[in-house]
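Q: Give me a protein?
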Amino acid sequence: MERHATNQILMIKPVGFAFNAETAKNNYYQQQPHTNDEDLIQRTALSEFNQFVETLRANGISVTVFEDTISPATPDSIFPNNWVSFHENGHTIIYPMFAENRRQEKRPEIISQLVAENNFLVTKTTDLSYFEEQNQFLEGTGSLILDRPNKVLYAAISDRMHPTPLKKFCDEMGYEAVIFRALQSVGGLRLPIYHTNVMMCLGKTFAVICLDSIDDETERKTVINSLSRHKKELVTITENQVSQFAGNMLEITNEENERILVMSTSAFKSLTNNQMQKLEKHCRIVHSDISTIEKLGGGSARCMMAEIFLPHHS
């Protein structure tokens, strides 16, 4: 059985972090910057990034950092989990991305260097980028919440999660998909949440989820039944907490095999005492302030971490 969590994380250090107008078309969590000073925005985001990496390492988590390139301009490169995922059978998947300027984030040399420097074994690479030509997208573990041991995934339909590449992923990796619609209120309308991992986090023995965002009662019951069948304790969050990125968490193990739940400080502050107590039964909570990254990028702690499950060469 595959591990649910890993101790090894890939992160991308930003060199030109900025508000991305292309992704803001359907990411309603992004906020326009309060300043036109691009250098200040980049410096602030870099400071938050460095502090986050330092916090992870201080808690015994192995972080491999690659620096972004100045050209081409990739304002969202800080969120690598959307373009690549690494699996315990040595399989690497590259994903089709919605925003054209995010497709430039896909850098094969990062994968090559990561593998070479860490003696990782890649048995197969599947590149799903060709779906971009058909305007069909699947943005990695932003769109897919993977229950690796049970080979079940949870995926909310949106502009960035299309059923056809999802089926291809499931066929390649042997997953059963639980598909549903997750919505948020925007200007009086109920619109799709752009990534599943904004409203849901799956731990080894728990699930943080905004059930209020699943308007369809049948779909909601299907998700609850699947989580219950796999013995996950439900920790429900509100739509307001989702806007504070309380759904965008990730369970990681450290070098002592301790279970750690990583989140942003804004997510941490939004939790109630009852929610905190439930989560702390399963994991120790670690958080870091990434508020500039969250406001301009519309993503949070989980989005910044690409999990590495690759085996090593014997």
Notes: The chain has a mean pLDDT of 96. The longest strand covers residues 8-13.
